[in-house]
């Protein structure tokens, strides 16, 4: 008999919406927006919505690529910027 520790670990290719939300670290409303716009791929398996994990990872990669160099430190307005002379 094969031991559990000897068994190959198979990574899932799909998950449900809750798993997709966790993977993308977004809420359900935002996740459904991404599904409706086609940013993330999914399909119906009976009545169950299955989310393709590769598309979630690709979305995250696009977000990282699009945000490179755009981080700016928050600055407090100087007196001139506030309207004071």
Explain what you see.
The protein is an alpha+beta fold and 85 residues long. It contains 4 helices and 3 strands. Strands 1-3-2 form a 3-stranded antiparallel beta sheet. The model has no long low-confidence stretch (mean pLDDT 87). It starts with 13 loop residues before the first strand and ends with a helix. The chain has a domain at 11-65: Multidrug-efflux Transporter Regulator, Chain: A, Domain 2.
Give a topology summary.
Layout: E1 14-15, H1 17-24, H2 28-37, E2 42-45, E3 48-52, H3 53-66, H4 79-82
Antiparallel strand pairs: 1-3, 2-3
> In this structure, how is the largest beta sheet organized?
3 strands, antiparallel
CATH topology of the domain at 11-65: Multidrug-efflux Transporter Regulator, Chain: A, Domain 2
- CATH class of the domain at 11-65 equals Mainly Alpha
Strand order of the largest sheet: 1-3-2
Radius of gyration: 21 Å
Instruction: Report, as a whole number of angstroms, the end-to-end distance.
Output: 83 Å
Question: Roughly what is the average pLDDT, rounded to an integer?
Answer: 87
Broad structural category: alpha+beta
Q: What overall form do the CA principal axes indicate?
A: elongated
Order of helices and strands: EHHEEHH
């Amino acid at each position: 008999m094969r031991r559990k520790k000897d068994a190959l670990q198979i990574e899932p290719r799909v998950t449900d919406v809750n798993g997709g939300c966790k993977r993308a670290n977004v809420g359900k409303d935002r996740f459904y927006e991404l599904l409706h716009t086609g940013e993330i791929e999914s399909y119906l398996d009976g009545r169950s919505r299955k989310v393709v994990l590769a598309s979630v990872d690709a979305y995250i990669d696009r977000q990282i690529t699009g945000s490179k160099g755009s981080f700016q430190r928050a600055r407090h307005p100087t007196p001139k910027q506030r309207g004071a002379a």
